[in-house]
Design a protein that fits this description.
This protein is of the alpha/beta class. The protein has 2 domains: 13-263, no CATH class; 270-308. Helices cover 23% and strands 34% of the residues. It contains 3 helices and 25 strands. Strands 1, 3, 4, 6, 7, 8, 10, 13, 16, 18, 20, 22 and 23 form a 13-stranded mixed β-sheet that branches. A 7-stranded parallel β-sheet has the order 5-2-21-19-17-14-11, with no helix packed on it. Strand 24 and strand 25 (262-263) form a beta hairpin. The protein starts with a helix and ends with a helix. 41% of the residues are buried.
Amino acid sequence: MALTLGLTLGLAGTANALASPVPEGDARNFAILAGSTVTNANLSTVTGDIGLHPGTAITGYGPGANQITHIGEVHATNAVALDAKNALTGAYNNAAAQGTEFTIDPDLAGTNLVPGVYDSTSGAFGLSGTMTLTGDSSSIFIFKMTSALTTSSGSTVVLAGDVSPCNVYWQVGSSATLGTGSSFVGTVMADQSISMNSSATLQGRLWARIGQVSLDNNTIANPCFAAGATGPGTGVDTGEVQSAAQVPNAPSGGVATGDGSTLATNSGLPAPLGATFLIAALMGTLVVARSGWRRHGTLKASSGRDRH
């Protein structure tokens, strides 16, 4: 009887879940968005775009002892980054405004949760062990908190059924910290800052509205990422897994490398325009050369006719 009752409550929670899709807009492709800085220590891997606005400093991108192996584009303090940050604010406010369906204990360890909108009895959430999210590909999970999100070392989020990590959101009223060696899932939208401790991994995205995003030997994979899908801008598209040393141009904005130097903002002519001028110059050289050849040939032919 208890099993039947639990199953009924679970099915009812799934059918009547209040959670609705969170509009992501121009932020969707970004694995990392920050307001003040993006920092990295040691070797991290990021799949998805990296954006910063209004801050200008991305440190530890590489090359050097501190670097990011990166698939995606880097947009620092440009129009694309601004559009993404505005979209982040919209997504954050949307999640915060959705009606709460379940109020639960702040420590999520040992829970098996159905889709819905959750808040906690303390206004914060933590994870000291393993939690499970169960649903299908359309299931949406939103966790709202007025203060912090903190996960312990080695903690884990498990997805059961066909739950997509793209549909899991953590709306954090202050800052978030993901513990050493933890394995987390979802989009963390923090009002202030987000820190990933050493060797933590994430299937999701780190979006900090005002403060920094800091990495330390982490792996972040944006499950919603589509290479080349970010709007027009001046970001660097690496196109494949590369070390920062292999990125052909400095990312837009001032980017500090792992060896203490700073890559300056791209200057001079944009690459496509510069290439156009180079091609035009080469064509002009060919035209001049051909013109000289034709004049020389004409003189020789005329001279031959006169002798004849």
